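Fold it.
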Amino acid sequence: FYVVDDIKAKVEKACPGVVSCADILAIAARDSTAMLGGPSWEVKLGRRDSTTASRAAANNSIPAPTFNISGLLLSFAAQGLSLEDLVALSGSHTIGLARCTSFRTHIYNDSNIDASFAKSLQRKCPKSGKDNVHQPLDFQTPTSFDNLYYHNLLKMKGLLHSDQELFNGASADCLVEEYAADTSAFFKAFAKSMIKMGDIKPLTGSSGEIRTNCRKVN
């Protein structure tokens, strides 16, 4: 979040009270994707910031790492997002890390995981303790935006239960195979779904506010 604070401070100095934190986040998501080798897209601008925040609402709306494919589809559908959006946006797990608490159940209890991969993770994430140990969501190229996340799923090496659910004998399998075989198809679908996600109930016009500090409402 300190990166957002830094961006906001510089934008406010140059152009006070005009650019929202919501727009900054949308642009930063696009730019960080492109900087790590991924696609770029035109970000729609003009969002305003909310005057409220709810951790509970966020946790209820964001799919959990324990979700199965039906739960993931329901969660995405509640936001107007499709199966195609689910599989494409999950590809963002080509970068980043997850805590031991997010994948512990998967590596100890699930059968749809490569045995050697599970054992290597069990050495780092015991059945109890070390909750804050982090592991890369894409163990091959954790700081490059590429399509190896999907290759991992084909080999049953998804870090999260919810990741591996995308390739587990259900409706998402064919899209995982397509994106694993064709990076450009993944990039095109990802950009399209990011624009679609950016259109979910934005505050515009006189709704909300332009925050002076992204950490709190005015």
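Residues 58 and 174 are 30 Å apart (CA to CA).
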